[in-house]
């Protein structure tokens, strides 16, 4: 009788541990607690620029996408606000 109770207690403990592990997995939210890569996976991709809009912008001398960086400032001795 005591042996059966011990086995039942171990089984109940094992089930409780499994349930706790499952709850812990369900409680993890990758959007909040994940790595940067996991968080970024939930972002919507940027819409593509239609080809006609790209052609129009390029015909007007504009770039589409990443803009060119401004040239480096050669006058480092110049005051910034003067």
Question: SSE layout and pairings?
Answer:
Layout: H1 2-27, H2 30-33, H3 36-40, H4 51-59
* Residues in helix, %: 40-55%
Termini Cα gap: 93 Å
Strand-pairing-aware structural class: mainly alpha
The run of helices and strands is: HHHH
Low-pLDDT ranges? none
Number of contiguous helices: 4
**DSSP strand count:** 0
Q: Please state the overall shape, judged from the principal axes of the Cα atoms.
A: elongated
Average pLDDT over all residues: 79
Percentage of residues in strands: under 5%
* Main sheet summary: none
Based on CA atoms alone, the radius of gyration comes out at: 30 Å
Structural domains: how many? 1
Word description of this protein:
- The chain is an all-alpha fold and 82 residues long.
- The protein has one domain.
- Helices cover 54% and strands 0% of the residues.
- It is built from four helices and no strands.
- The longest helix has 26 residues.
- The protein is elongated.
In short:
By secondary structure, the protein is mainly alpha-helical.
Could you name the key traits of this structure?
82 residues; mainly alpha
